[in-house]
């Protein structure tokens, strides 16, 4: 077989050939056999491994049409939107670069409160987790006296489960076996003895990978037989983006903002019955604790949801990545699996349930490792075979991320040398988050025109904001959502980057934004102070000329009353594409 170099050398005469010296000059070839050709201004180069051809005014080159254009691009890809890294965030990146290059703004830094990236916001890693992963990555450190024995024991166990005892090898598509066993043990302990079978555990590339894999199994059919998936509004945009990519039908059920974003079973039934006229509802997604809303669902609420899923034969997807992030003293995390078990064998042996967890949230905040797991219950054995096949296409989740997940589910025990430091660090992270949750709620609720529910859990606040009619009119004139205009002006005037509520979904006539509570207490205090000042300026700028503040509050009350006004008139909360399905 000829190599590329052989082809080039055989098809192009030597540069020093008298017969072809003019050819070399006219074509502008450059190879390792002769002197370098000086590139002239205005000339383009098209390179292979051995030769560079120059074209310019004297050497016209016809550029053919692209095979992939916006016209030929998949319509499902074009339908995908992901507000957490959307236009506001792109604009924030541009401003940040300009500041780094010496540009001048009325602020000195961009505060990115748009995404739940704990370490980017200054949170320090949990020492024990990093020790174990470091030992796995560089086993020579196992001989170092600087590492505690319990960290070494865990690293050795993980390495024994890896091919060639190396973190650089592929694992099984479902993940390293001993880590899956540790996950099952963790779930059994968390749920106070409810059994977990490690064969039902699948390690994933963050929770997102698992969610996408399950949705791929669920989505099928055409027309009224097309799969519909119930998702909460507001919701984490992963769900709407994934459903758009898979061309599934979005079925929106609205969380009750006036009841601290509780899930109302009557609203769930309304959405389901409306959707049945246009598609085939097959799955129900719940995020608990909530993102972006920060609520923690009660056990009674979870029981009602599971009973509803049982009655309507719905596949349940429980996103529980914030299970360690509960701050309100009167709230507790209840896993869907444990509640299902306590409802009795009829439910526990029949309801199809997948729950998700991740290294990215909780008290570790290890987003970059992309570790996670899902536990799959009551799935048809033949479908499970298809799931393994689907997972095998991406070979395996990142093995360092699997190691990080192992530490989360198998932390130091009370009798081990790392326990005291581990508990101190874990408690410190969660205590500070609880403090910041209260601080955020208190300051936001002190601002006229902003109402924030208690941040019971997770890492975000999702306050409702009053936007004056003149600002709404300006937003419409600029073809953007009113809360997008608000967030854009907030960014450009203060450097604070938050995400408009329209990117998560909200009831018509209401406006919100999502912000993380992850910045340090000092920076968060500054952020909230700047936000308060901006909001008051915003209200003043867009209020009617000379209108008294009491008039402004009447407008605010009228806007807020829209929260439930359209509820009775809604025949469906499907996404706008429903007619096409």
From TrEMBL:
Origin: domain of life: Eukaryota
Alphabetically ordered keywords of this record: Aminotransferase, Pyridoxal phosphate, Transferase
Annotated region (Disordered), positions in chain: 1-22, 545-581
Entries under InterPro entries matching the protein: ALAT1/2-like, Aminotransferase_I/II_large, PyrdxlP-dep_Trfase, PyrdxlP-dep_Trfase_major, PyrdxlP-dep_Trfase_small
SUPFAM superfamilies on file: PLP-dependent transferases (SSF53383)
Signal peptide: none
Entry GO terms, CC: cytoplasm
Catalyzed reactions: L-alanine + 2-oxoglutarate = pyruvate + L-glutamate
Cofactor(s) this protein requires: pyridoxal 5'-phosphate
Keyword field contains Isomerase: no
Biased composition (Basic and acidic residues): 552-581
Pfam families attached to this UniProt entry: Aminotran_1_2
Pathway(s) per entry: Amino-acid degradation; L-alanine degradation via transaminase pathway; pyruvate from L-alanine: step 1/1
Keyword Transferase attributed: yes
Enzyme Commission no: 2.6.1.2
One Gene Ontology term of the molecular function aspect: pyridoxal phosphate binding
Domain Aminotransferase class I/classII large intervals: 148-530
Record note on quaternary structure: Homodimer.
Membership in a protein family: Belongs to the class-I pyridoxal-phosphate-dependent aminotransferase family. Alanine aminotransferase subfamily.
Function: Catalyzes the reversible transamination between alanine and 2-oxoglutarate to form pyruvate and glutamate.
Protein name: alanine transaminase
Source organism of this protein record: Champsocephalus esox
């Amino acid at each position: 077989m000829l190599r590329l170099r052989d082809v080039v050398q055989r098809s192009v005469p030597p540069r020093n050939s008298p017969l072809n010296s003019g050819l070399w000059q006219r074509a502008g070839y450059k190879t390792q056999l002769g002197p370098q050709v000086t590139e002239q201004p205005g000339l383009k180069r098209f390179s292979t491994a051995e030769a560079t051809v120059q074209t310019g005014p004297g050497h016209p080159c016809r550029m053919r049409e692209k095979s992939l254009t916006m016209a030929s691009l998949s319509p499902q890809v074009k339908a995908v939107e992901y507000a957490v890294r959307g236009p506001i965030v792109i604009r924030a990146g541009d401003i940040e670069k300009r500041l780094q290059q010496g540009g001048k703004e009325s602020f000195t830094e961009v505060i990115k409160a748009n995404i739940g990236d704990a370490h980017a916001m200054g949170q320090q890693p949990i020492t024990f987790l990093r020790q174990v992963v470091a030992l796995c990555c560089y086993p020579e450190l196992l001989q170092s006296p600087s590492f505690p024995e319990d960290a070494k024991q865990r690293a050795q166990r993980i390495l024994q489960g890896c091919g060639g005892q190396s973190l650089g090898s592929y694992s099984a598509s479902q993940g390293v076996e001993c880590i899956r066993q540790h996950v099952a043990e963790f779930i059994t302990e968390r749920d106070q003895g409810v059994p977990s079978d490690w064969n039902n555990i699948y390690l994933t590339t963050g929770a997102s990978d698992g969610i996408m894999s399950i949705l791929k199994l669920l989505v099928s059919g055409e027309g009224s037989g097309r799969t519909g998936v119930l998702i909460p509004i507001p919701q984490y945009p992963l769900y709407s983006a994934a459903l758009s990519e898979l061309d599934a039908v979005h079925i929106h059920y609205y969380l009750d903002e006036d009841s601290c974003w509780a899930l109302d079973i009557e609203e769930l039934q309304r959405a389901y019955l409306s959707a049945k006229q246009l598609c085939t509802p097959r799955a129900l997604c719940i995020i608990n604790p909530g993102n972006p809303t920060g609520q923690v669902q009660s056990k009674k609420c979870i029981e009602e949801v599971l009973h509803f899923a049982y009655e309507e034969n719905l596949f349940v997807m429980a996103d529980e990545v914030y299970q360690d992030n509960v701050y309100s003293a009167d709230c507790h995390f209840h896993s869907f699996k444990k509640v299902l078990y306590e409802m009795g064998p009829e439910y526990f042996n029949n309801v199809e349930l997948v729950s998700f967890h991740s290294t990215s949230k909780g008290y570790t905040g290890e987003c970059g490792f992309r570790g996670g797991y899902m536990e799959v219950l009551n799935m048809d054995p033949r479908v499970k075979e298809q799931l393994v096949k689907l997972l095998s296409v991406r070979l395996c989740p990142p093995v360092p991320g699997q190691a990080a997940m192992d530490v989360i589910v198998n932390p130091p025990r009370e009798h081990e040398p790392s326990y005291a430091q581990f508990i101190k660090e874990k408690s410190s992270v969660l205590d500070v988050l609880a403090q910041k949750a209260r601080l955020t709620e208190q300051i936001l609720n002190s601002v006229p025109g902003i109402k924030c529910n208690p941040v019971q859990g997770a890492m975000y606040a999702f306050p409702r904001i009053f936007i004056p009619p003149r600002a709404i009119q300006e937003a419409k004139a600029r073809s953007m959502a009113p809360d997008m205009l608000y967030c854009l002006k907030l960014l450009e005037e203060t450097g604070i980057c938050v995400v408009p509520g329209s990117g998560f979904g909200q009831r018509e006539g209401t406006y919100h934004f999502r912000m993380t509570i992850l910045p340090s207490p000092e920076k968060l205090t500054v952020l909230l102070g700047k936000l308060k000042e901006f909001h008051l300026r915003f209200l003043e700028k867009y209020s009617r000329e000379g209108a008294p503040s009491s008039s402004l509050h009447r407008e605010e009350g009228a806007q807020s009353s829209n929260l439930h006004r359209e509820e009775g008139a809604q025949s469906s909360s499907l996404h706008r594409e429903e007619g096409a399905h």
